[in-house]
Specification:
Layout: E1 2-5, E2 11-14, E3 29-31, E4 36-39, E5 45-48, E6 50-52, E7 58-67, E8 72-74, E9 80-84, E10 89-99, E11 104-114, E12 123-125, E13 130-133, E14 139-142, E15 144-146, E16 152-161, E17 167-169, E18 175-179, E19 184-194, E20 199-209, E21 220-222, E22 227-230, E23 236-239, E24 241-243, E25 246-255, E26 260-264, E27 267-271, E28 276-286, E29 291-301, E30 310-311, E31 333-338, E32 344-348, E33 358-359, E34 362-363, E35 367-375, E36 380-387
Parallel strand pairs: 4-11, 13-20, 22-29, 30-36
Antiparallel strand pairs: 1-2, 3-6, 5-9, 7-10, 8-9, 10-11, 12-15, 14-18, 16-19, 17-18, 19-20, 21-24, 23-27, 25-28, 26-27, 28-29, 31-32, 31-35, 33-34, 35-36
């Protein structure tokens, strides 16, 4: 109230009202950053957040893990959080900011740690197929080996088949020399192992002919080794080979459910395969219209059929060895076979389809056993196996 008085004691007044209003609520702002995704063997990330307030100041920031497996955190009271020793899984981290009036705000960021992808098998190329005429009986095969996700640890040439056992030199290099060859067909295999133990191979054909015996050496067809396809995979490419002056390649299906085929020269492409067995025949024809054929069997199986549940090591030549149908997919796995009492009777890494049911050199008795496969990509498989006599 404001009052004014004059010299005659007259007065007047006025009243002014003053209201003090609270300030507008302005919370702080926190940003934990963009979501991230990493793949093992990378097991650490750096999270950089921000925090601000339009009026006042930020007095504290705190990072906390609200979801996910164990990890080591450093800098949890700063805007830069270091996360190490992370494992496969999904993590959620929360950044909380507090201003000078005690107001809090939070923001979350997600980090996904993916498992290490399966190791890719190395790729070998043993070079072209060869045809030589006696009396030349020595040949050098030069191949290549490459690994898309690692390095080549070793290479080796082996004789798959042939009319005799030729002398072999430099078998552990990419350049093989084979001598003392005789008339006939040889198949040499170049195998490569990568730095994680995966194995890949391809074959080269050498045809040796005697010009004094054979006026016109016939062509040779090679459709490749029998193949197992594991569902849900339903497609496959097979590259056939021919030795000689080949004029044409022809693929045809001779057994199994009719398959969808696409042929391009010596390459057979198959799609939409279903469970079952197929047999395909490759026929090659040379410039003299002489032909030769070879067959390849394709087995399409369910995943659980890859590892047989029994075998019979009784030296009858049938089922004497425990054969995995798709053994190449287990090259980074440790295999252990146990008796019913828990004793380990066989171990291998990788398994090479060579266990004949023995322990310490002696054949095991008929009965049930159990196996465990622990793979570098995180797979763990187990099951039962029966030895039948």
């Amino acid at each position: 109230q404001f009052t004014v008085s004059d010299n005659n004691a007259a007065s007047v007044f006025d009243i002014m009202k003053l209201s003090v209003l609270p300030s507008t609520f302005t919370p702080p702002v926190a940003n934990a950053g963009a979501d991230q995704e990493i793949t093992i063997p990378i097991n650490q990330v750096s999270l950089v957040g921000t925090a601000s307030v339009s009026a006042g100041s930020i007095v504290s920031t705190v990072w906390t893990k609200v979801l996910g497996p164990a990890a080591t955190l450093a800098g949890s009271t700063t805007l830069n959080l270091q996360c190490t020793n992370m494992v496969v899984g999904t993590y959620v981290f929360k950044l909380t900011a507090t201003d000078n009036t005690g107001k809090e705000v939070s923001d979350n960021v997600q980090v996904i740690v993916l498992p290490k992808p399966p190791n890719q098998i190395p790729v070998t190329n043993p070079g072209q197929n060869y045809s030589i005429l006696l009396p030349v009986s020595t040949i050098t095969l030069t191949g290549t080996a490459a690994d898309s996700d690692g390095s080549i640890a070793s290479v080796e040439w082996t004789l798959v088949s042939g009319p005799n056992a030729p002398a072999i030199q430099n078998a552990l290099t990419l350049a093989l020399t084979a001598s003392n060859l005789v008339e006939g067909l040889y198949v040499f295999r170049l195998t490569a192992k990568d730095n994680e133990g995966a194995i890949g191979f391809n074959d080269a054909i050498v045809l040796v002919t005697d010009p004094q015996v054979t006026v016109h050496p016939p062509p040779v067809a090679y459709a490749g080794e029998d193949i197992a396809v594991v569902l849900p995979e339903t497609s496959l490419s097979i590259e056939g080979e021919g030795v000689g002056v080949i004029q044409s390649y022809t693929w045809e299906q001779i057994e199994g459910t009719p398959a969808t085929m696409n042929v391009s020269q010596q390459i057979l492409n198959l799609v939409d395969l279903v469970e079952g067995s197929y047999v395909f025949k490759l026929t090659v024809r040379d410039t003299a219209s002489v032909s030769a054929s070879d067959e390849v069997k394709v087995s399409v199986i369910e995943k659980d059929e890859e590892i047989p549940k029994f075998f019979s090591p009784n030296n009858d030549g049938i089922g004497d060895v425990w054969i995995f149908r798709n053994v190449s997919s287990y090259q980074q796995c440790s295999l252990a076979v146990f008796s019913r009492s828990g004793q380990i009777v066989y171990e291998a890494k990788p398994y090479q389809n060579d266990w004949a049911g023995t322990y310490n050199g002696k054949t095991l008795n008929e009965g049930d056993f159990y196996y465990s496969l622990k793979c570098d990509d995180g797979r763990v498989l187990s099951g039962a196996i029966r030895i039948i006599k």
